[in-house]
Each structure stands twice: as structure tokens, then as C-alpha cells.
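Page 42, continued from yesterday. The earlier attempt failed because a stray header line got pasted into the input along with the sequence. Redoing it now with the clean sequence only.
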Amino acid sequence: MSTAMLAPTNQSEIIVRALNARAGELSSEVARFFLGFQLAPSDVRRANELAEKARQGTLSPTEEHDLDEYRRSLRFVDCIKLKARLVLNETT
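This time it went through. C-alpha cells are written below.
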């Protein structure tokens, strides 16, 4: 695959590609750990606050950046959990 065909370059996409490269080596124990992985409650609250401000159209540029970071983080957590579920489904 040429570098021109890679997914967009941002932190979560790069980490997801790294995880994909080693997904077959994920043990059941580690997969179960990843299933419990989640953002801190304070981060969930802040992300929800920012999402509400976005819906109202009142985000500052800094808040828009922060919301994008929360979205990337949540996508990364979702990808980890998906990989974990796939590993656990293969071992059962």
C-alpha cells in the first residue's frame, strides 16, 4: 500500500493502524481489559457540554478543537473495544 492510500493522518487513525497490525496478538486477558476501557466521567461530561454548545452554534475555536479531540479519543476507545470483542469472539 502506498502512503498516498493511507487513511487521514491524525493521532487516533495512526494508533488504530498500529493496533490493526498487531490485533492477532491480542490475548483474551488484554481484550477483556480493553472492554472496560472508557473515558473518565469528567471527560464524558465535558464532551457532552461541548457537543451541546456545538448544536447551539456557540463553540469558540478552542472549544471546537477540544471537541474534535474528544471525538478522536472516543473513536479510538470504540476501535479498541471492537478489536477486543473480535478477539473474544474468536476464542469462544
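Notes: The mean pLDDT is 85.
Reminder to self: strip header lines before submitting.
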